[in-house]
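Hello Y.,

Per our agreement to keep a running log of every chain we model this quarter, I'm adding this entry. I've kept the format consistent with earlier entries: sequence first, then predicted structure.
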Amino acid sequence: MSISGFKEVADVDCEGGGQMYVDGTTAYIGHMDYPLGTSIYDVADPKNIRFLTQIEIPEGMHSHKVRVVDGLMAINHERARGVPETDHLAPGIGIYDVSNPAKPKHITNWETVRSGVFRRAPLHAGRR
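Predicted structure for the entry above:
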């Protein structure tokens, strides 16, 4: 690939990759397809990128957005298109401690309604 002013130094073959966020020497990649939620890579040496770990997401969900600030990672939990609302799929945001990116620790989920935080389904009549 050739883009003016940029030089490719490495690539990662990453199935169904969504948004990527780099924090220091760690890359966080969201995914569109179950069971892949968020992949975490050490990119300190771009010519030798190392896979660290992956957070999986339940069937019927996807998690393609990710942000990291001060050792905390927020990822979206969204219902995949066409998946009906059910009690066992809770859309929202997952919060993780990634002070050690190779071993993320789940802190909590902030649950939302409908499809999730980035997709807005129409409200039903009389429902607010």
